[in-house]
Queue: 2 jobs
Job 1
Amino acid sequence: MPITFGYKDYRDAARKKQMQSHPNEFVRRFSLHILPKRFVRIRHYGILSSKRKMNDLSLIHEQLDSINPGREKKDTQQISDEQSRYDPKICPCCKQQTMRQLVQFDQRGPPCGWQEVINIVNEKKQPVETA
């Protein structure tokens, strides 16, 4: 026996429609909306609501620029460096600027066998002993 339920089709000018589905399919679709334990649904209100965000954020940025016209625009890396005063090249033990970057991974993370890659890089940087 199929289950009939109503929904809004936002692709069709938000018209209200009805759909029939098998009870198992209805339960599957309904359970997709249930959050796991300890998860909280967050909704944005005010200037961060999705309806007002497009217009209001550009207006706020314009008003901030008119208040501080000579303000230096900084990227997130500069702001992070200023706030944390952390220099990744300074060794935490000897407090001297001796740290070097050996390998940099892309955004997907280290590839399989990354230890071998580091060993190869280290072998190339060590001085060769002559007899």
Note: Helices lie at 23-31, 50-67, 76-84, 114-125.
Job 2
Amino acid sequence: MSRTHTIAAVVGLAIALGGPALLVSPAHRLLGEPDRLTTRVVEQFALWLLLAVILGIVVLWERQPLSSIGVQPLRWQSLTWGAALAAALLWGVVPALAWALRSAGIAGFESGIAMIAALPVWFRVFAVVTAGVTEEALFRGYAVERLALLIGSYWLAGAISLAVFALVHLPLWGLGPVLTFVVTGGILTAFFIWRQDLLANIVAHVIVDGMGLVVMPLLSRTG
């Protein structure tokens, strides 16, 4: 890598990994009262802003195509792979992890889901789409690719990105869910390294979050 590309990658990584971390740190209070809906909306837009900055760095500073972070032309294979990955997570991995947490006496997703389920449906849909797009682009698409360029190992890059991804979820979800995120996020990371198809990752992420935060709470209310 040239010096320019190295500097751009370091700055980009600081934004891609550090930006979400700031949003869950005490600094996020600068956006407003944490429990207010308007503050939560601002936080979602902040994630989109971070993504816009990263895309600007890729195109304008690094002068690289978006394919360098896994953005591929729209194709049915991406949608199929994403749906298949989501199905494996929803009906295989996540239930097994939930059982493991219960067996170990570790709190799961219940309290976090209850808090989010109290928010309006439109916001939960917005948050699910935001998380699916921005988290996959920042943590998988950009962070994994640029860390791999800097340190020369996709798997070490994936491990670093995964660690940050899991930790930024700790303040909201707690230890049990974070242990789950380590596994599910690890699967998403390994899948991205294998396929380098960001859209497939986004589809899987949106489906999984959508089922947990939108569909299931709605079904529980009508059931």
Note: The longest helix spans residues 121-151.
